[in-house]
Design brief:
The complex is a heterodimer of chains A (1011) and B (493). Chain A has nine helices and 51 strands. With 1011 residues, chain A is mainly beta. Chain B is globular. The chains are: A mainly beta (1011), B mainly alpha (493).
């Protein structure tokens, strides 16, 4: 009987056992990329019952009971635990552990984890870059990184941007050093943003590993590589849409224009030019004629894959963008191809190779100055129709020598620039003796840039500077640049005992930078020539570029560097890093050819200390500080030699005779600009790593600014082509505070939210300008007037120097009672007599503004609900001033709408002077022309929808997302001009608006397709 | 297995040696010592071509004297500033009204450009002994001629000026150099021109180069300006009697572009239309910038071309011509008359419009008009004409009390060419007649202001002219500052 019970019991028991033992299967995928993950560990918790996912991410695990906990773990992904319920098919999404402090940052000749970083380095990753839909890389940095300010030179397709890291450090070239996979690059328009994996910005003395090139900051860009053991993956990203102008400047219509011009002529004692105003209506709106909707299409294909030992990534893109001014006549087209290959040749020997090709073609309009298309649209008279009765473009007669019919100008434009560029890298990395690694790589760039300018026979009106009454002419030139960088360095990485970590680096680097400027060849043609395909060989007569004897147009610059870096940490808590670099450059004089650049930084991870170990709020807290002496070598080569590249041309026997004369006068003591930079900062994570705070205080002093001071004329520096020597003599300080805070959280599995805010406060002050006069001048305002911008001790670089106004003179009595002003009457601007000498003249000029913003901010918002995602990026600049210089001072040109509020009698206005053609001082440079350019710009807003997995599985693809996006949606600003974010980028002379081509507003529809 | 291990460690070693030697194979520091592809100033002058090309560069600054020519008229009672409006080029407007002061862009340009020329001549003469070749002495003599020419301009405009000879001023030296008295500078000019006279050929190797006659004429002028009549007369008469030059019979062709470097031209500054120019570097232009500046504003019509309407002749100078003087219609264009007698003429009145234009040096049609067309007119500047030599000789002979007879002869040669009757005055009356003749013969050519100043007549002829101040122009304030603020300014400024 007992046996029967036992057997029954056992039978029951075993059947219970067998009925409850189930097999679970499913697929494990990467949550962000929706790609299957091979090699994921799947096991029953606290047992050895486990398996791993196969190449397609599928797994099957048996002998599981309902209620068991399955654990899914994979390196650098957050481990997930799932309790078995009714389902036997469990799909799992693993989240990459990116928010962990093991995030890797590129710091130059190596990487470091974010946790252990002792410097001020910011990083922008591929996801953020993609979300902003940039056509240029710089657009992806604006508002993302504290301390980085981007201004655009122009909104026209293919035009450049200026990147400034922590203020303006020099009156010379402020461009930071930019390396793409270790390869120096100057023109970021050749880079397809879709190829970028990360952008790492070194803002403080951490950049000191690059020694004499580091003073303006360093940007390290890495391009996408594949991942090992992954199958072939395709990603196709495309967007297309149209652009329109974000702003038109309101100008007078024909009736208003005629009335005001009549008034001006009457005030100047001349006869009315428009006796019959009643027959005019609104006339021609030139901006309406000139601005158009322009299409933009960008496509990007990336293919990645990897075997056990190697990875590869291939990318190709095609961008074509028309201009909102000029349409196809301002088109920019860029084609890029990239290939990255990494392989483990042997166990310790790794190979890296990549090559990047860009071909671009740009049609250039005359923009950004007196005589640009927009300048003409603002100034041309609305009383002219676009075409006359015969269908020809009307001539802008009577409007001075520069203003012409802008549509005639657009129709007459055949200028192109083409760039062909290839760059590459080949490197080997070998590990030996356990702790040593040696790495050797060669990087090269080769580019050809050519320009073609065609000047057909043309007549725009009498006396116009653009007229070409002569033969049609073709101007061509071609410049070739190539450079090679060899890097060799040895790294030692060892942990001593439990507490001491040491990493040492010793290396050398060689850079050869060569180029050839061909000079311009001119060709003249007979009257009939088809400009679409005209060739220099068909010219009637050619004049070769200035190939003067010995003036080769070639340059060859070298940089030889040795560097060492030591990184030490004790218990991962106390961090130290020290760098020393020795740089020698061809550019410097024989007395100062080599320099040493030391820097050091320290860090303390306070959150690892006992007193913070259990803190519930503070998850991570690090204090850090850095100090270094670094340099800027962006001066022209041979500054110490009197190269005979000046102009010495005379005429003998009625022909040009090219002589030789000195160019820049020599200075043997010339050296680099030296910068001492201090940074104190902290990094903090709070509330379960949901809140991320970074704050930095910095102070940079740049000494030995290379100035070409005005020198006495007796040195011969005013001769054609001759210039004053370069001397190291100025000092400028940049001090500021950066603060960045980010919050991201998942409210539930369906809802996630992230918000980011960063702000930079910047103060720029020049300390000394030792050039004998105490200041440098630059920029241009009006015609034949004094320079409006200065660099002077006690002021920011490039501040505006002009007269200060104090309302208007309302009547003759006020005029009489005030200091003497030339050519003044009631209704004119009243200037302040600063020195109290009773006379208003150039001695009464003072500081009336400066183009450097006091505060810049970025604010980014992202929100996701189920399959929808939303993002918005905003950027603000506060305190930057702009000089309004697009109004031509000429009696018959058109005027802006604000002139309707002009003074017409006592008390009618206190701000806008009267209109008159007589001589007045109203046109002198004063704060009447300086405006506050502060702005808040919604850079990008985007809504996307990712198709659900069920649809994806049917298609056999990984991810399909469609989105609508708008760039530069709206700019809140008081500035009257086209674009407050525009600047030439000059340190002295920046911030002067001569009719900047505005950054367009773009509406896009896009798709991200991964399969 | 064992073989495999050996291979692996062998390869490892090879690799290690290769790789570490790459690192240790450090480049020497000389790696960065790269010679420029373009020659430097200190290792030049190795061949005859080097001297020739440096000389061409020294000639280059002659083209920038367009400004001296323009302002020499505007400062005087011959012309008004003109331009687009009262505020067009304030420096020029102020000089016209005699209210100029020590901040003036045009004066700074003249100072800088003339010293640019001196720097380039001194560069050649600094290396004059480096090599030897046939014809070197001619090159050096041309350089001397040019140096004298540039110093003469500086002395005329600014008086006492720093003097450097046969050596460039290096960066740093400008803080110790002083203004040399005019007399020293004149003495150097005379020395340079005497060498030039002795060495230069009568017929130049290339059209445009300095010649013996040019050097003699300039020397005579230099003497005359110092009132050294006894020295001026003989050297000027040598030019007259040399037979190389003569008065052009058809005066109306004197200043046309198809009659450059003719028999009346003793020295001519050469210009061409073959190269473009821009406002960013006016001294670089190979064209005559003054011609564009003097031109008729927004002109369309026959023969002439547009310009900026500066340098406007006054009614007074128009009336200074005697009736029947054929020179007037060549020298001064009456635009209203021109418009009435030709079809299709239109123009715009500029500032201070008087109806007259400096016809000798305004833009004409027919040149290549390469951009900026206003800056690339090819009209040569007739710096020293035979008529000028005759009148200078007449003045020297008369005022020096040497020979009123010969003075009359030369004066009347000039008058006869203008179909005017002889003058038979002597003494003071003859002097006045010569002065009057100089005015109408040379109007528009940049001499009037200096003629008035050196003969003491400026205050009575020029409105606003203050004796004791305006004979010289102020040295630009910034030039004084940039040499260490040690110089005293010219009186009155």
């Amino acid at each position: 009987m007992k046996h029967v019970f036992t057997i029954l019991f056992l039978v029951c028991f075993s059947s219970v056992l067998s009925s409850q033992s189930i097999t679970i299967s499913g697929t494990v995928k990467d949550q962000a990329l929706n790609e299957p993950l091979p090699g994921v560990n799947v096991f029953l918790k606290n047992t050895s019952n486990g398996t791993s996912t196969d190449f397609d991410g599928n797994y099957t695990i048996s002998d599981i009971q309902k209620g068991d906990v399955l654990v899914f773990s994979y390196i650098s992904f957050i481990t997930k635990e799932i309790t078995v319920g009714e389902q036997t098919n469990i799909q799992v999404l693993l989240q990459e552990d990116v928010s962990a402090l093991d995030e890797v940052i590129v710091i130059g000749y190596g990487t470091q984890s974010k946790k252990e970083l002792t410097g001020a380095v910011s990083i922008v990753r591929a996801e953020t870059i993609e979300a902003l839909n940039p056509t240029r890389v710089e657009q992806a940095l604006q508002g993302q990184v504290a301390g980085v300010n981007i201004t655009s030179e122009s909104g026209s397709p293919g035009s450049g941007s200026n990147i400034r890291i922590r203020g303006i450090s020099t009156n010379g070239d402020n461009r930071p050093l930019i390396l793409v996979d270790g390869n120096p690059i100057e023109d970021l328009s050749v880079l397809n943003p879709g190829d970028i994996e990360s952008i790492n910005v070194l803002k403080d003395a951490t950049a000191g590993i690059y020694g004499v090139r580091a003073a303006n900051g360093v940007i390290l860009i890495t391009t996408k590589t594949g991942r090992k053991n992954s199958e072939l993956k395709f990603a196709y990203d495309a967007f297309g849409g149209f652009q329109e102008t974000s702003r038109r400047i309101p100008v007078l219509n024909a009736t208003e224009y005629a009335l005001l011009t009549n008034e001006a002529f009457a005030a100047g004692g001349q006869a009315n030019p428009f006796p019959d105003v009643s027959r005019l209506d609104s006339g021609t709106d030139w901006q309406e004629q000139v601005f158009q909707r322009a299409p933009i299409i960008n496509q990007n294909l990336t293919i990645t894959g990897g075997t056990e030992k190697s990875t590869f990534s291939f990318g190709s893109s095609l961008l074509t963008q028309d201009g909102i001014v000029g349409g196809n006549g301002a088109n920019f087209t860029r084609y890029t191809t990239r290939f990255n290959f990494n392989s483990d040749l042997l166990e310790n020997l790794k190979l890296t190779a990549n090559v990047l090709y860009t071909g671009s073609s740009e049609r250039n309009l005359n923009e950004g100055g007196i005589g640009s298309v927009l300048f003409n649209s603002l100034n041309n008279a609305p009383t002219f129709s676009v075409r006359d009765q015969n269908g020809a473009f009307t001539l802008a007669e009577g409007l001075g020598n520069e203003v012409i019919n802008p549509l005639a100008q657009l129709g007459n434009n055949f200028n192109t620039t083409k760039v062909n560029r290839i760059s590459g890298k080949f490197g080997l990395n070998y590990g030996f003796w356990e702790n040593f690694t040696v790495e050797s790589s060669i990087q090269f760039n080769y580019s050809e840039g050519s320009n073609r300018t065609l000047t057909p026979t043309s007549f725009f009106g009498s006396g116009k500077v653009f007229n070409n009454p002569g033969r049609p002419a073709l101007f061509e030139n071609k410049d070739i640049f190539n450079d090679y960088t060899f890097d060799n360095f040895l790294t030692y990485d060892k942990r001593f005992g439990e507490d001491h970590n040491l990493k040492a680096l010793f290396g050398m680097s060689v850079l050869i930078n060569k180029g050839q400027f061909s000079g311009t060849t001119q060709g003249f043609f007979g009257t009939d020539v088809n400009f679409a395909d005209v060739d220099m060989a068909d010219a009637e007569e050619t004049i070769n570029g200035r190939i003067l004897a010995g003036l080769s147009g070639k340059f060859d610059e070298r940089l030889l560097s040795y560097f060492t870096r030591v990184q030490y940490d004790y218990k991962g808590k106390y961090l130290f890093s020290g760098v020393l670099r020795r740089d020698g450059s061809t550019k410097f004089g024989p007395n100062n050819r080599f320099g040493y650049f030391p820097s050091a930084s320290v860090g303390w991870i306070a959150s690892d200390e006992n007193f913070l170990a259990d803190n519930k709020i503070i998850n991570f807290l690090k204090f850090r500080g850095s100090y270094g002496i670094i340099g800027n070598d962006r001066i022209r080569p041979n500054g110490f030699r009197g190269v005979l590249d000046g102009e010495g041309t005379y005429v003998f026997n009625d022909n040009l005779n090219f002589g030789r004369a000195v160019g820049v006068l020599p200075n043997n003591a010339i050296a680099w600009e030296e910068q001492k930079t201090l940074d104190i900062g902290l990094d903090m994570r709070l509330f379960n790593n949901k809140v991320d705070i970074t704050a930095d205080y910095f102070q940079k002093r740049t000494d030995g600014l290379l100035l070409q001071p005005p020198v006495s004329g007796i040195l011969g520096a005013s001769a054609p082509g001759t210039q004053p020597p370069f001397i190291n003599s100025g000092i400028v300080d940049n001090t500021g505070f950066e603060f960045a805070i980010g919050y991201s959280t998942d409210f539930s599995e369906d809802v996630s939210f992230g918000i980011n805010y960063n702000v930079t406060f910047l103060n720029n002050e020049v300390q000394t300008v030792n050039d004998g006069v105490g200041f440098l001048q630059g920029g241009a305002f009006g015609v034949g007037q004094d320079f409006p911008s200065r660099m002077e001790a006690g002021k920011p670089i490039g501040y505006f120097f002009g007269l200060e106004t104090n309302g208007l003179f309302q009547n003759q009595g006020e005029v009489a009672g005030h200091a003497t002003q030339a050519n003044v009457g009631p209704g004119d601007l009243r200037f302040v007599d600063q020195n109290g000498d009773g006379l208003i003249d150039s001695d009464d000029r003072i500081d009336i503004g400066n183009p450097i913003p006091d505060v810049t901010m970025g604010f980014n918002l992202s929100f996701a609900y189920k399959n929808f995602d939303f993002g918005a990026y905003t950027f603000a600049s506060v305190g930057n001033d702009i000089i309004r210089n697009y109004e031509r001072n000429q009696p018959l040109v058109n005027r802006s709408v604000y002139t309707i509020d002009r003074w017409t009698g006592e008390g009618t206005s206190t701000t806008t002077p009267r209109v008159t053609t007589g001589a007045t001082s109203n046109t002198l440079f004063s704060d009447f022309f300086v405006e506050d350019g502060s702005f808040v710009r919604i850079q990008n807003a985007q809504i996307g929808y990712t198709l659900p997995d069920t649809v994806m599985d049917k298609l056999g693809a990984d991810k399909l997302r469609v989105y609508v996006s708008a760039n530069n949606i709206y700019t809140f600003t008081k500035y009257r001009g086209y674009d407050p974010s525009a600047s030439s980028g000059d340190a002295i002379g920046g911030g002067i608006d001569q009719g900047f081509y505005p950054v367009p507003r773009t509406y896009l529809l896009g798709v991200n397709f991964k399969f | 297995m064992i073989r495999k291990d050996n291979n692996i460690s062998y390869m490892k070693n090879i690799l290690f040696v290769l790789v570490s030697s790459i690192i240790l194979l450090a480049c020497s520091d000389d790696f960065v010592n790269v010679d420029s592809f373009d020659e430097g100033s200190e290792n030049f002058f190795n061949t005859e071509e080097d001297y020739q090309s440096a000389l061409s560069a020294a000639y280059d600054l002659l083209q920038s004297t367009y400004l001296n020519v323009m302002l020499g008229e505007i400062a005087s009672d011959n012309t008004l500033a003109g331009g687009e409006s009262a505020t067009d080029s304030p420096g020029i407007q102020e000089i016209d009204d005699m209210v100029h002061f020590n901040v003036n862009q045009q004066l700074r340009d003249i100072w800088g450009w003339m010293y640019g020329g001196i720097y380039r001549t001194n560069y050649i003469l600094e290396f004059q002994d480096k090599i030897d070749f046939a014809g070197k002495d001619v090159i050096l003599a041309e350089a001397r001629f040019l140096r004298a020419y540039y110093y003469f301009e500086l002395v005329k405009w600014f008086g006492d000026v720093p003097l450097t000879v046969d050596k460039r001023i290096d960066f740093g030296e400008q803080n110790t150099i002083d203004r040399a008295p005019r007399s020293e500078v004149y003495a150097q000019m005379e020395q340079d021109l005497l060498v030039a006279v002795a060495t230069l050929p009568t017929i130049p190797a290339d059209v445009g180069r300095a010649t013996k006659g040019a050097a003699q004429a300039l020397l005579g002028k230099v003497y005359l300006y110092q009132d050294k009549f006894a020295e001026a007369a003989p050297v000027l008469e040598e030019v007259i009697n040399s037979g190389t030059y003569d008065l052009l019979t058809d005066y109306s062709t004197m200043f046309e572009n198809d009659n450059e470097n003719n028999i009346e031209s003793v020295f001519e500054v050469q210009y061409t239309d073959q190269e473009g120019a821009g406002f960013g570097c006016l001294q670089c232009s190979e064209g005559n910038v003054a011609v564009g500046f003097n031109g008729i504003r927004n002109y369309s019509g026959p023969l002439f071309d547009s310009g900026f309407s500066f340098n406007i002749p006054t009614q007074e100078v128009y009336d200074a011509f005697e009736p029947n003087d054929i020179r007037r219609e060549t020298a001064i264009l009456d635009i209203n008359l021109w418009a009435a007698t030709n079809t299709g003429v239109s123009f715009v009145e500029g500032f201070e419009h008087t109806g007259f234009y400096n016809r000798k040096y305004i833009a004409r049609q027919g040149d290549a008009n390469i951009g900026d067309a206003n800056l690339t007119n090819p009209n040569n500047y007739r710096s020293i004409r035979f008529a000028d030599v005759l009148l200078m000789a007449a003045e020297a002979l008369n005022r020096g009390g040497i020979s009123d007879d010969r003075a009359q002869t030369y004066l009347n040669r000039v008058r006869n060419r203008a179909t005017l009757l002889n003058v038979d005055a002597t003494g003071e009356a003859l002097t006045q007649a010569i002065y009057q003749e100089r005015r109408v013969e040379l109007v528009g050519e940049g001499h009037r202001f200096f003629d008035l100043v050196r003969t003491g007549r400026a205050a009575q002829e020029i409105d606003g002219f203050q004796t004791g101040k305006h004979e010289l122009f102020p040295i630009p304030l910034i030039e004084i500052e940039l040499t260490g603020n040690r110089w005293t300014q010219n009186p009155g400024y």
